[in-house]
From TrEMBL:
Domain named DUF7007: residues: 108-222
InterPro entries recorded: DUF7007
Organism the protein comes from: Rhizobium brockwellii
Domain of life: Bacteria
Protein name: DUF7007 domain-containing protein
């Protein structure tokens, strides 16, 4: 297995060289913008104090004349203007590295786990990315697939584009840009923590991996009542009516119960769900705001 050395686009030398390819400015609507070749980026407020990265292509207007309606793509949340500028520089470095690769886009007749291939990108011999009408991913030849660590190796050599692509990128890092390797490292850390730990030679701590944290949450709360659905109560002001099951498994046949939880408290629930505290959250058997439950009770 090839180890991946993460040379991020945020390294000082890379920042210096990539920044030369970015034109920064302020839009006609007053928000920060950046142009990288034919790509236009904007830091736009969502109206609630948060910002997101917006992008557009082939907008030739001067940056000072750009307005919000020129952007049509949402590329995720960004903390502030400093993070926006860094993201723009990373994008410029990513594009610079891409231009040095010999990736070939072509059409080939291929059946994938996600349907017929509509467009293929050849990264190298035996490493091909396929796009279909609804999904896509990589296919590795048998020889290439043997280079993937056995713990995450796909028997058929197929690796879908949502998370498994990271396995390909970390196995063949020289075929990916620094930004792509950075994204692959994060994807593997969150989705394949055991593989990541083996690759990096250290254990992940709490808060570093979504999947590992989720497994720990499920272990600790296996016998607790976890909310599986909730609705604002129309019978009790300031309360949220919830359904809960032991362990929070929606598919299990285990008993389910209803509880009332204060709105503010439920709004602070953790990323893996709300755990009922039997000492504070009383079971609720009175009229329900859930339509299905009301019909059942009738």
């Amino acid at each position: 297995m090839n180890g991946a050395s993460l040379t991020s686009a945020t390294d000082p030398v890379s920042i210096s060289s990539a920044a030369d390819g970015v034109e920064f400015g302020t839009s006609a609507d007053g928000f920060p913008v950046a142009r990288i070749g034919e790509i236009l980026l904007g830091l736009i407020s969502n109206g609630s104090g948060d910002f997101f990265l917006a992008s557009a292509w082939r907008i030739t207007k001067p940056l000072a004349e750009v307005r919000r309606h020129h952007f049509y793509r949402h590329d995720g949340r960004v903390k502030d203007e400093a993070a926006f500028r860094l993201r723009a520089i990373e994008t410029a470095e990513h594009m610079r590295e891409l231009s040095a690769f010999s990736r070939i886009q072509t059409r080939m007749s291929a059946s994938t786990p996600w349907g017929g291939s509509q467009l293929a990108t050849i990264y190298a011999e035996g490493i091909v990315s396929h796009s279909t009408s609804g999904h896509g991913g990589f296919h590795l030849s048998p020889d290439r697939n043997l280079q993937v660590d056995a713990s995450v190796r796909s028997a058929g050599g197929w690796y879908e584009e949502d998370s498994e692509w990271a396995i390909v990128a970390l196995t063949f890092p020289d075929l990916f840009t620094g930004y792509e390797r950075q994204c692959a490292n994060e994807a593997a850390r969150n989705t394949f923590p055991d593989y990541w730990e083996k690759l990096r030679g250290r254990q992940l701590s709490a808060g570093e991996s979504w999947l590992k944290d989720r497994a720990e949450f499920d272990r600790v709360h296996a016998d607790d009542w976890i909310v599986i659905s909730a609705i604002i109560s129309s019978h009790h002001s300031g309360m949220t009516e919830v359904f809960a099951k032991r362990g929070g498994n929606r598919e299990s046949q285990r008993e389910e119960r209803r509880f009332l939880v204060p709105h503010e408290e439920y709004g602070r629930r953790g990323r893996f769900g709300f755990v009922i505290d039997l000492a504070r959250h009383a079971a609720y058997d009175s009229p329900s705001s859930f339509v299905g439950w009301s019909a059942r009770a009738a």
